[in-house]
Amino acid sequence: MKKYKSSIIVSIVFFIIWEALARYIDAMYILPSPSRIVEKIWLLREPLFLVHLPSTLLVTFIGLAISIVLGVGLAITMSLNEKIEKAIYPIVVVTQTIPITALAPIFVLWFGYSIWSKVVVTILITFFPITVNLYDGLRSTKREMEELLITYGASKRDIFIKLKFPSALPYFFSAIKIAVPLSVIGAAISEWLGSQSGLGYFSKRMMTQLDGAAVFAPIVILSLAAVILVFIINLLENKIIKWRNE
């Protein structure tokens, strides 16, 4: 708890200033106060938590799972073959130069308002940090250590499993901690641009009614969901990579 003491204090001060400023402006449709947002979340708890949050989380988890498989596969392939790396890496970078807001409507045309139009948007946003970070991690092993294992008769498979993979684990978890918030953002953006359910869709619908607190309510829930997921990833990282803290 001491580790997060400073963050908690800063957050409390931030929300106090926000509350005071919102009450001073007194325009709830422009800047609703935190207390008003919490009240709105409570009033709309059934549609928010029983309908829209599960829809967004489903898109997030499916998109993130596919991104992990795709990113890990690409990173390992590029680290094992330099020619493939030179062919694939520029394409991976180019995928991040195309505005997602321009592609999302196209995916809606292709897949309709099904879950897959939103999953594809989430994958496009999240697979890049996983691929690049893990690829850098696999390349971070010292050449001297590889040569030492070779002198002991280690095969390429042994070097990958016993040296490269463990060395790349911190990079992998760092990538996941970047990808998790991005996956939540990707799901919300896709729902905003074309969906019939989800927190992004709900926020957009409330905006047309000029209900500022109801617009902010899904955003707060999305932020909390991302924080909780990153916290869980941190716990897993500390559990798996024990040697780093020794």
UniProtKB/TrEMBL annotation:
Location (main, coarse): membrane
Keyword Transmembrane: yes
Gene3D superfamilies noted in UniProt: MetI-like
Source organism superkingdom: Bacteria
Cross-referenced CDD domains: TM_PBP2
Transmembrane segments: 49-76, 88-109, 115-135, 171-193, 213-236
Name of protein: ABC transporter permease
Species: Clostridium tanneri
